[in-house]
Amino acid sequence: MTDAMEQRYRRALRWYPRKWREEQGDVVISTLLAVADGEDRTTTRLPELLNLVATGIATRVGRVVPARARDRISTVALGSGAVLAVVFLIVHTWSPWADLSIDIADAFPTFGPFANPGVLLYGIWVVGLVFGLLAWNRALQYTMIAAAIVPMTLRLVNHLQGDTWPGPATTTLGFFLLLAFCVLAGTPASPSRIAVIAAVTLAAAYIVYAMNGVPEAHYVDDRYFWSGMAWSYGVVLMIFVGLMAAIFLGIARQRELALLVLGALVPWAIIAYAGAFRSDAWNTLGVTCLVIVAAGIALAGRLAIRRSRQGPPPENAKVNARPGATVWNSTNW
């Protein structure tokens, strides 16, 4: 059974970079096996495997995005995601001002007093917000792992049932899945910052919903948010402004702030791209190719400028010279 446990641990460690596994993998596995032996266990536990997976992903991301930037992205994702979850729960799932038996029950089954099982997902985010405000980071990590699993489970179950529930929409599930990954990428900075992000998100959501006349007497599903309110109030414009801000921050050598802006935009950008692709696949692919070409040209130009600033190598330099060796030429005689 120990061999089987070791194989399971090694499979979980594949989420870590190869170099990390070569340097520390055996030590980690030995420690895990020793702990299991001390607890008189002959099988692995799901929480420890999930923890290895989450930590492995974070380690891979950490090679590109510094820990401080990831913590800030995690803070923004938790604060904004939890507030949006509460908004979606109240407006698009519960709708206490609407008569669900009239609005949707004739066409779709309800989920108890709720219009759909989205309450399961949104409730997890509320619990995660509480853990974040209490700075219970380990509990928050497990909660966000659940928040990443539940959207996929809900979509699968609804599909197997023939899409009988009126929601949550696939876009909503994908959005909260991406937000959960953003939270797992780091550790929220502080409860006060989480509270500030939550307050700002709540104010923005109130303005957007109020300007659209929501809530109203009838039930409004979450698809209206993406097809109506989000597009009407400039998700694409928000992404464009955010990208410009990230570029200027990068030019100003504020790398961590630039990464924060880009990280906060990732869920919105992916959802916007998916929506555009569904609406007009060919034009979306064309724009994507243009962006890739432009990015390649910009990168090549940057590399050329950097090389030109370095200047030519010294005349006496030898590429294959050993460190500390004397380089001889005619001037040495």
From TrEMBL:
<keyword id="KW-0472">Membrane</keyword>
<feature type="transmembrane region" description="Helical">
    <location>
        <begin position="114"/>
        <end position="134"/>
    </location>
</feature>
<protein>
    <submittedName>
        <fullName>Uncharacterized protein</fullName>
    </submittedName>
</protein>
<feature type="transmembrane region" description="Helical">
    <location>
        <begin position="194"/>
        <end position="211"/>
    </location>
</feature>
<feature type="transmembrane region" description="Helical">
    <location>
        <begin position="257"/>
        <end position="276"/>
    </location>
</feature>
<feature type="transmembrane region" description="Helical">
    <location>
        <begin position="139"/>
        <end position="157"/>
    </location>
</feature>
<keyword id="KW-0812">Transmembrane</keyword>
<feature type="transmembrane region" description="Helical">
    <location>
        <begin position="282"/>
        <end position="305"/>
    </location>
</feature>
<feature type="transmembrane region" description="Helical">
    <location>
        <begin position="169"/>
        <end position="187"/>
    </location>
</feature>
<keyword id="KW-1133">Transmembrane helix</keyword>
<feature type="transmembrane region" description="Helical">
    <location>
        <begin position="231"/>
        <end position="250"/>
    </location>
</feature>
<feature type="transmembrane region" description="Helical">
    <location>
        <begin position="73"/>
        <end position="94"/>
    </location>
</feature>
